[in-house]
């Protein structure tokens, strides 16, 4: 494929300008809702919402639990933009296309991106319902070259070889931890490493065991690709996993991962 089709700087700028012309909201915070977690977008006040199909250059959501709306509004008085539905590699779009919203966020003026996802717990101490503050990731598709920054690098977004050792903002992690404790969430607040796989099949038992040995605490099919692109263009990143199921690590287990459980219906 022509890597310069539909997701150049000019394409992202055209989309951002199109959106800015239709709303007075000037978001400094961009939010990405994980599977079944789109309810957050409904909390935005004074909403201006766009269906993805009406936004120039935007891909379409194809996964149940991802509504496919970009919602502008205010959350606790702050201007935000919220993706009610994200894009995954397994939906078939090139990885440069599914991460395009991060660059559009940047050109909308967003400074901080907050991402959520539904994930399987690998850490044996985790329970269903735990919230894991992501402190780092394993970008497994990226290891094999399925990486959103492959292709010509446009310096207007960022450098050719971006650093990722500081991908997840430590101040924001600490703030979330402090606020979580204050709110009484201590029993189900965790921190850990998220592992992104390509999907769409869920992990085998051997794969779960391997990922756990590699240092992953939770596994899913998203987030890392978005984080890489958000960091490349200099936005701060904060991310959470909701542990919706526990990865099957044992051949005697009768448990089976399924999307209904992950997405809450
Ligand atoms: C699997 O049920 C789906 O839910 C998760 C997985 O990544 C996968 O797409 O979605 P989010 O990561 O978008 O929450």
What do you see in this structure?
There is one protein chain. The protein is α/β, with parallel strands linked by helices. The longest helix is centred in the middle third of the chain and has 13 residues, at 170-182. The protein contains nine helices and nine strands. The model has no long low-confidence stretch (mean pLDDT 94). Strand 3 (69-75) and strand 4 form a beta hairpin. It binds 1-O-phosphono-alpha-D-ribofuranose. Residues 34-35, 86, 88, 117-118, 199, 220-222, 259, 262-263 line the site of 1-O-phosphono-alpha-D-ribofuranose (R1P). Residues 34-35, 86, 88, 117-118, 199, 220-222, 259, 262-263 line the site of 1-O-phosphono-alpha-D-ribofuranose.
The separation of the N and C termini measures: 36 Å
List the strand order in the largest sheet: 5-8-7-6-9
Summed over residues and divided by their number, the pLDDT gives a mean of 94
What's the shape? globular
Number of helices: 9
Q: How many strands in all?
A: 9
> What percentage of the residues does DSSP assign to strands (E)?
15-25%
Reading the helices and strands in chain order gives HEHEEEHHEEHHEHEHEH
List ligands, each type once. 1-O-phosphono-alpha-D-ribofuranose
| Radius of gyration computed on alpha carbons | 18 Å
Give unreliable regions as ranges: none
What level of helicity do the residues show? 25-40%
For the largest beta-sheet, the strand count, sense and barrel status come to: 5 strands, mixed, barrel
Structural class of the secondary structure composition? alpha/beta
